[in-house]
């Protein structure tokens, strides 16, 4: 052995005891450090709860730190192994793939990532130089407490920023190039800061940032560098995760971590998230302000109408009994957030609310609607839906039901209107008049215009007390909305370069108020008020100039730019709302509806001024509603719920029925101790023929505490309308036995007054247990406007509302603000028992107090009019001689089919009911009607499908909604699922399968499947669908329930089809 080896062994042997000693001392120090808080707590007499609280905070902090580290390491691993994750089967779902895989127009730019990786160390050197030489001195100069601040370590690490994909938009504007960069950064960046004066260290070690960054190259110019400026911003807030070190470790404590991340995201959003933009000019003499704060692309008016089939979250007994939900909706577009009111205990809520959002970028921005269940503690999630606003821009109006995602069921009904921005005031009066006709449950009226204000700079502002330079900021107010600029510190010539946007209801009546103040908001530096009507006479509704400040210095002035744009919904986008007649439209200017009329004598309608329309102009859907008559006859074989001795002795039930349709609920009386009750009750309801409406029937056993469930079933209103009259039995679902006998009529409406006598004679012969009298007619009343109303007692114009009364039923219009010529444009309807004896009353009043006149009209007078229609001005009793109201009143006779058939005297009851059976009836009780398929097979139920083709996505989609009346395969019914293939291709790419529903003969799936086929290829496909029973390998139960085939060239897949299809059972 050499001398060198011997020397090394001796050195290691001598150092080993030293290392062990240091290790022992370190372990002892850690134990002492852990016990020291306990000793100090006992020494100072602190409560044990303080120690427990500190321990809980420490454990929460530790858990949050570990969770952040795991997320950071996972993100790094995914970015480094993107190709393996993309091709792996387990991550084949759409949400886990990068954008360039999901969307064919998103390109993968691996070459750019290689450049970034190569340049990353040099980017780190530049950042270190920027922080140490520029930013640190600025921070030290800003405060006396930060004079010892320094960056001790700046290292961007080895993980470079990655661009997951790039999408180019070149089709919208030829003067710009628009790029969407999908940015992903999961880096090992390490930046440490130290303030030596306070022995304080803080820093960051690891950052995650994911988002879509839009980069706009504009304007394109014919000189080097070919691009005038680069503008960049995030369309939506990016996802951010920061791993703190040093003193900032405290920010990982639960509660503080969410707060700190939110504050940092707010700081980023204030500079880089819409509507904020970062603009870098590349050439001189460029209008940077116009690029940094461009006019919005448009405004979207959101009508949140209703929802249906929401998930029940307020369950009872830990979910054993389904309850209801108290739903409300939250709508987001960028940084704009709106919340609806909540509806108590309703899974089919109706909100009927309207909101307006400013759209800055299309394509790109989306409307996100989230539905929640209102709870005292944590609100439950009920689903979300996203709508691309570029689709709304192209369609102008989108009125549709949207399925909620991430929940088992639920859909929301939205009407979205794209409002274009007009640079002329020619149509402003027409827009204001249209907005007055809109009604919603929101307090804010619709806007007629938007006002964009670009606040540039001010000059020669006054000094503060003590001859100190002010730190000016600006408050800009329009009516009740106030917005504030940033603060420019220590200057009398501030430059803010801020942009603001306001919604305007009527520019003729509103002002913009500008107040310049010191940053403490207490010391005013000047103010200015400008009527918005000045903009209406300006070129292109724009003012761009210096304005002299009031209550300020003699030379104090402010420079800003105001742009007004009228919100216009194009007429060709609203086919259901016909344009007003030209005679009315021409009188929409100021004074068109004032009291410049000649006084009229009694009945002096011939003196109506020419500026007023002679007839009402309701929408095209006025008086299109129909009447559904439900005769609840009886039930049979109901389940006995009132058992005795633990079920050993069978009892009876006390059944009653609940009927729900279009927001109305009817309930029958309770029949005591009867499993075959006879109700003989009649219900009537006026319905609008909207697609997808259903009537729900539920039976219960009346108990002292909780009523027991006896079964349910649903009927499609469309099926009843197509049949006109149905008299049959319906099998109860979700119970072992029971059926209900119903007679239902969709009543034809006629204007033949001679039919009224026959209808009344037939109804006088009917008798019902609930003492209901069938209606003989339906009355429609359209209240358009009034004219020449009297003033209030104090001489001011009234706030007028109209109340329409028929017998014990009354409806009220909205209250029209401050006018003697109000306009409502509201329609109402009433069921009428005998129009010969009933009287219609219309009362006008100021805020439902002081009377402004009334109209009394016997309906017998309407019966004498041609077509049973009255459309004219009516004089108001108890008002001025010129006070009138414009009404359209029409009466429709309800001509029941049963009346016509039975009136003949020689027709049997079986002939009265049409030979029609809805597809969801009990097959056992169908008489004289076969629903077998055309191939002669036996029908084993039905399946509801939606088949269509999306030209925008170039995809064929097939939605499996539900099945009904499936044939049972075992004593427990069946465990159905749906599988299908698009022939002639039998590969796995064209095969699909739904989830399995346990023990359900009427399952609901609501699953959508997409296929990347062209329109021509889709039309050549044949749908081969089977409904099967999920059985085990050794089971002898039948697997196939039924099947159907459909050639897609036989339907119009471009517009889409939703309907029920018969399933044919397998023939042995």
From TrEMBL:
It holds the Pfam family SMP_LBD. It is a peripheral membrane protein; Multi-pass membrane protein. GO terms for molecular function: calcium ion binding; calcium-dependent phospholipid binding; phosphatidylcholine binding; phosphatidylethanolamine binding; phosphatidylinositol binding. The keyword Membrane applies. GO terms for cellular component: endoplasmic reticulum membrane; plasma membrane. Keywords: Calcium, Cell membrane, Endoplasmic reticulum, Lipid transport, Lipid-binding, Membrane, Metal-binding, Repeat, Transmembrane, Transmembrane helix, Transport. This is Extended synaptotagmin-like protein 1a. It comes from Knipowitschia caucasica (Caucasian dwarf goby).
